[in-house]
Structure formats: C-alpha cells, structure tokens
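Let's study today's protein:

:::
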Amino acid sequence: MSFRRNAPVHALAFACALALPALAHAAPQATDLDEVVVTANRTAVTVNDALAPVEVIDAEQIRRSQARSLPDLLRGRAGITLSNQGGQGKLTTLFLRGAESDHVLVLVDGIRIGSATSGLASLQDLPVDLIDRVEIVRGPRSSLYGADAIGGVIQVFTRRDREGFAPRVTVGGGSNGLNEFATGFGGGNGRAWFGADYSRSHTQGINACNGYFDPVTFDGAGCFIAPDSQPDRDGYTRDALSVRGGVDFNEQWTLEGHALRNEGDNEFDGDFTDRAKTVQQVVGGKLRWHPNDRVDLHLTAGRNQDASDNYLGDTYLDYFSTYRDSATLQGDFGLAQHHLLTVGLDWLEDSVSSTTPYDESSRDNKAAFVQYQGRFAAQSLEASVRRDDNEQFGGHTTGSAAYGIEFAQNWRITAGYGSAFKAPTFNELYFPFFGNANLRPEDSDTWELGVAWRGDALNVRLDTFSTEVDDLIAFDAALGLPNNVERARMQGAELGVDTTVAEWTIAGAISYLDTENRSGFYEGNELARRAKNSARVDVDRAFDDFRIGLTAVGEGSRFDDVANTRRLGGYGTIDLRAEYAITPALTLQARVANVFDREYETVAFYNQAGREWFLTLRYAPVN
C-alpha cells in the first residue's frame, strides 16, 4: 500500500476533525488532569494547572504501546520530529518545535544527560523496559534549567515501587532476529523502598545505509561506503541495569539514590568506522528536608557518563568519554495559599576524556534562579529569571513569564514569553583544527499562545508559538571554523485531543511547523530534517481480558540538507497491537509494526525497517 506525499498527515487531521462532534457525547475523559508533573516548573503541579504545554506518558501507556525503544515511544507526538540513521539502536536525533537536536534538554531522574562533545543525548540507548514515565515540556525552559532548553525539556523517570513487593519478568522476540529479556523487582514498607531491574535486547538489525562513496573523487553521501561494499545487517545489542532505593527517616527527612547503566554494541555502515561499544550511565541522589507545609528544601547531585569505543571491524580506533557532574540546592517556600516562591543554585561541570586532544578538557557553570507561581481566583501567573556564569563564555541571563485565565468553566487561555540559550559544545569550541574558542552562546526568544477546553468527555488543547534564534553556530567559510553566523525562525501550532468514546481510549496530536533560515547563503530555506506536518493517533480498547490497539503516525516531506536540494517524501505507518491476560499476573502481547510495509527515510540514504512483528510474555504479580 502506498501513500501520496503528505496524505498521511492530511488523512489523520481529517479523521480527528470528523471525530470532534462525536466526542462531545463521549464517556469520561482519558487523561487524568490531576496527574502531577515536576519538569515544567521544577516543582509539583498538576497537568491541569501547568501553564506550559505538558505531555505525560505513564507506565500504563508505555506498557500498552508495546514500544521497543524510547524513540519508538516518542515518535509523532506533538511538536516532535525524529531522524534515525538505520533502525533500532542507531543514532536518533530529536527536534522539538523545530529546535536543533542539541537545543532540547534531556534529564533522567532529574540528572542532566548528553554528550559534552556532540551536545546530543543518546535517546536510542535509554531502555524503555526500565522507564516508568516520561514528561515532555514544549517551549523554552532556560530560566529554570540553563543551557540547552530552547525547544523544551524531556525527562525520563526510571521505575519506582514504593509499597509491597513486585517481581517481574519479560521475554520476547520478533522480526530481524530480535530477542529481549527483562527481570526485576521493587517494593517497600512505607518508610523505605528499593528496587533493581535488568534488561537485555539483541537484534540482527537491517542494512542501515544505502549510501555511496567514491574513493577516487571522495564524492559521497549517507554513510560514505563504497557502493555495495556493506549490504549486511547491522546489529545492536544492549544490556541495562537500574538500581534505586530510599528511606524516609521521619516526616521531615528523606534520602534516595538511583543508578542506571546501559552498555551497547552497535554495528553500522562506514568505510572509516563501522562499530561502536557505548556506555550511558546516570548516577544520582537527593536529600530532602520538609519541616512544614510551607518549606521544602532539597539537595540533588549526580553524574552522567557518555562514552564510546570506536572500531573498524575488529580494529580498535579511538574513544570518546564525556562526564557531566551536577548539583542543585533548591528551596520552595509557600508565601500564602496558591503562592509559591522557588530559589535555587545550580552547579555543572563538563569534562572530556578522549584519544583526540582538546585544547580544553573541562569547564564549569554556576547559576542561580528564582521563580514565582501564583493563582488569583481564575487567573494564574508564573515568572522566573536565571543567571548563568560559565567558565568559557561568561555570564548569561534568561527569563520567562506566563499567564493563564479560566473562563466559562471549561476554557482556559494561556500566553507566555521565554528567552533561552545554548552553550557551544566541546567539539565546536576545542576540536583540533575545527573548534573556535571565541564562540558565543546561541540565543532565542519565544512567544506562546494557547487555548484549552477541558470537559467531562473531551480534552482539547491548541498551542501556537514563534521562536527566533540568533547567533546560530554554523561553519564560516571565511574563517574555516564554526562561527556565530546564522539566524533562524521556527513557528507553528500543535493540536492535542484525548477522550474515551464507547470504551475506546483515543489520543491524537497534529503539529504544523514552519521554519526558515534567516541569514547567510541559504536565507529563506527551510531548516533541514524537520517535517512541516506531522500527526499521531492512538486508539485502544479493552474487552475483559483482551485488549486491542492501533497507532498511526504520519509525517510530511522534509529537506535533508540546508541547501534544500534533497527532499525526503512524506510517509505514514500503522501499528497494530493486541494483548491477552492469561492470568492476572501473566500477559501475552503481540504487535505488528508498519503493517503496510511502508518504505521511507528520515535521513537520506538511511533505511528504515519494513513490516515487523513482535511477541512478548509479561509476568508481573498484582500486589
């Protein structure tokens, strides 16, 4: 089955529009608006009260989706475009609201992750089996988190079991030689809690790249391999372990800690390197003091390691290892009912260890921030400001403000502004014969306007935004180095709908994005690898012990290059899933992904998997 270019997105949008009248007569809502999120404001607020556009993917949604990876779980959601280089485990970059991949801050259990050299977070290496929930915040958050949060923040929370004892085992397999195994336990007694989980996944993979390379002229594209030299499968193996625990000493003091380590062995196509052994590790802890209802102090510290040993066949070539050490002291003070003041101090140190010599191998960043949140009857107000002092680029101040007003019982309008910035990476600053130590941070200004309708039967939210980014870092031919030479604009809209209709749970999102390079030789061109239109619909229903579901994702065309000469066509995929509860503790799941075997690319010359099937058996006794 084939799809006309952009037809998947238009079809999904049309289907959502047709459904709206019927949804007005639907059963109780699907989304829990009282669910608490912590990423948007660095404090606990409900989804209903958050002024920023927030999406939560909880443990039940993760399990029900049968996603095989974190990128698989995120694809097609509001504002998100993914680019993947050849299937499971391969480099996957995420664009949020059109912002660059390194303009999105990623946290794991409150700890900042990502490579200090490339600036990217290895989303493909975070094991979905060990994830309890994901919070997505769209829009600038530098006034709370500092650098990198131009497009938004994504926070991943690993499993947390607080009561009783909960063992679990999962085994599965499927297409392309996939086999998976996971086991773990967790529990607690009210005062103390603990847990550990292990996950292993192996796939023979697909042929990652169909690129080309001429060793005589050095002309090439994609993965730069000689034609037909590596038409092989490119496998991926990962082993992940998560441990955590905590104790409530009394009503005032709490101590907790967590660690996540993922080791990967990734094969890909290339004449210069074709294999990498990777490590993603996050270790952190938090001490909390809560003397009364109006004071909450906590100290958080952690370390992220992002490492890669690179090979050509069995020949060792080099390694990169970066570390991010961080600490935060934050105090939340209740000024009065519905009025909260937050103040905090942040410290971050990035360091690099590599066979490649860097002029500088470490830098630190110190910051202070303050935030006010208040509610006045039907009106809500947020304001925050932050000052960062970076060892390399000096001081930087960011701020944000948001306002919301509820009216006619079910309606709310929100408006906001936020400035943000992105610090240059070590590669941009110090890579031999490439780095420019005089680079300045990239700056952005974003204006937002949203309207939401929340009822007993239907939740709808429409958000619009416009972002201007200055001092974008790009290669400057005059210097022969990267330089702050470009400007860009990203603007668009996101429509989200969720409900339950006749026991069918339905969630849909449609996104429109307009990007423009506003300077230099390519002024007026679209930014590369961002689809202008995208949509996702999830539909699920339970029939006693049996459940069925569908996920449809569509994306419009995009350009693969800044010159806008290579266009990648739009595509649409449909995934079907089913599960049967053999017993209350034992569940059999089945999934067919890309049912119609759609061929498409999100990065030129890099293949995507066709139709795939998966079977999974889960054992998890109910407490």
Remarks:
- The longest strand covers residues 315-336.
